[in-house]
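#lab-general

N.A. 3:47 PM
ok so I finally got the sequence cleaned up, no stray characters, all 276 residues accounted for. can someone with queue access submit it? mine expired

B.Y. 3:52 PM
send it over

N.A. 3:53 PM
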Amino acid sequence: MSDVTAKLPDTETLVLTQADHVLHITLNRPKARNAMSLVMVQELMTTFESIQNDESIRAVVLRGAGGHFCAGGDIKDMANARMAMSQKKEGADDPFYALNREFGKMISYANQIPQVLIVVTEGAVLGGGFGLACISDVALSLDDAQFGLPETGLGIPPAQIAPFVVNRIGLTQARRLALLGARFKGDQAEKLGIVHESHASESELNDALEKVLEQVKRCAPAANRVTKALILAVGQEPIDQLLDGAAKSFAAAVQGPEGQEGTMAFMQKRTPKWAE
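B.Y. 4:20 PM
back already:
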């Protein structure tokens, strides 16, 4: 286990709380249904970067304050970009491009963080919030959460989240949802494979989250990191190259401290140290 411990950043749009092996990130703009401002996007990116090498954080729980997960992008940022566009000097970056791409960089980075990313959705789960659900390792929802891709109804494409939606639920369903701007609830999101579990009440949802966090704790932290990287590499490199690298990772793990502890714990019929 690495001795690297993250220093969490100061944030104004997020509430960050670390408990045991879990970092809880709460999107905290409840008056705007936690719509993602540029500041929030940047603070999420900074937070994810700060914990990249911290092996003491084994899971990240992302949820929203005030009964909503995230209603998408902040309209005020769009207005600011429009004003900047009117004042743009020749050769400068298009402010609409820069705003949209900033979110794309953040969600792409969040997709590959080595921790188990657990997203808990309720209320509005729209646009960029929908995209965040699609890059989670585990997604839990309330039955009556409101999911949707409203972008085309606003005259814009779901530009940065579309690839993650396709990866999550496949091309056929992604085309239908995006091109119709469909709205649906959490129980339907479970059927589509966007979330893994949908629950009828807040208490059931919180109980489900605790069970997931207990399951994460039973998994060896370094082995989980290697496994997540392996899964995300599928389709990104030739299969023989991927399996060669996987075999090297396996050999290192078997001979490493986690492999030795796991084997010893199994033989002695006890809980491995990382799960205590």
